[in-house]
Every structure is written in structure tokens, then in C-alpha cells.
Amino acid sequence: MDESPTLPSEAGVAVSSPQRGKQAEGGKSAPAGAQTALLGTGRRKESIARVRLVAGSGSILVNHRPYDAYFPREALRLAIRSPLLLTHQLGKYNVMASVEGGGLTGQAGALKLGIARALVALDPAHRVSLRSAGLLTRDPRQKERKKYGRKGARKRFQWTKR
Q1: What letter would DSSP give residue 29?
Q2: What is the SS3 assignment for 62?
Q3: Is residue 51, in this structure, part of any structural domain at all?
Q4: 122 in any annotated domain
Q5: pTM, whole model, 2 decimals?
Q6: Could you list the residue range(s) of the whole structural domain that residue 77 is in?
Q7: Beta strands in the chain (DSSP E)
Q8: CA end-to-end span of the chain, whole Å?
């Protein structure tokens, strides 16, 4: 059987080059000095984060803004940096992410998962440490639906005895 090498596209991870799709159209490949971006997708609650990791100085941009301007709370910033700190890659890669949906906590969680998945695509040896720290596990908790006859998912309407 002919087994050609495949890209690590499992679990929302892909590798791309800046000239994606040019090989098939024009027959030319990407230039030899072109950097490849490692892609990772993370989700949490209603948020989706698409993360690109490129070798660089360590800047983290979220929706074209520095992450410390986008996320006001230090706990969220630490959560975003945690995969990079754990794998000792902080300062070696630039992170460019587009995040949509949900609130800031969900977006930070989605970003954390996307960065962790991109780091596994970079080096599969990181999988063990990231998995043991719980950074590769998608948080399955979702908002509980509102029930009829109630004010919310669990809260009852106000009841007066007399």
C-alpha cells in the first residue's frame, strides 16, 4: 500500500504555508524560506478560537489586538500563556488568533485549547505534558436549557404562600 505522509489534521490541528493552494494551481511550490504556520482550533461554551503559531518573538495577538489589551483579567492572560509556559515555548512563537462568540472566559478557554493543539502539531512530544496538565481536554460543559414553568434552567418563579 502506498502510504504518503499526511499532515497532523486530527483534533482541529493543521499545518499550512503562506502560499496554500498554489501548488495545485500553478505547479509552483512555496519559496524555500517561507515560514509554515501551525494551526489549532479550540472551542469552549459558545466560543471558537482559530490559532496560528509562527516562529517569532513571542507576541500574542487576539483579533488583531495584543492579548493583554483584549483580556483585562490576569487570570485569563495566565490561562492563555499556560500551554506555552508548560512546554517552554513562550517567547519563541508568535500567536495570532481570531476568536468569536461567547464571553471573555469562554474565549480564553478556547484560545488555551487552540494553542495547546497547535503546540502538539509542532512537536508530538508535547502531548504527554499537555495532556497530564489537562490542556488538551475540551471542556464539555454547556449552558443548561431553560425549562418551561420556570424562570431559567433551575430557578423557579416567585411563589407567594398567602
Answers
A1: P
A2: strand
A3: yes
A4: yes
A5: 0.75
A6: 36-132
A7: 13-16, 37-44, 47-55, 60-62, 65-66, 93-100
A8: 80
Cell of 1: 500500500
User: What element of type H or E holds 104?
Assistant: helix 104-122
pLDDT in tens, 19-71: 444 444 444 544 554 568 889 999 999 999 999 999 989 899 999 999 999 99
Distances (CA, A) of 130 to 24, 78, 89, 118, 120: 36, 15, 12, 11, 8
Question: Is residue 53 a part of any domain in this protein?
Answer: yes
Read off the CATH number of the domain in which 52 is found.
3.30.230.10
Nearest-angstrom CA–CA distance, 111 and 95 = 10
Residue 110 lies in a domain: yes
How many residues are listed for the chain in this entry?
Answer: 162
Categorize the per-residue pLDDT at 72 as very low, low, confident or very high, splitting at 50, 70 and 90.
Answer: very high
By the 8 A CB rule, do 118 and 51 touch? Answer: yes
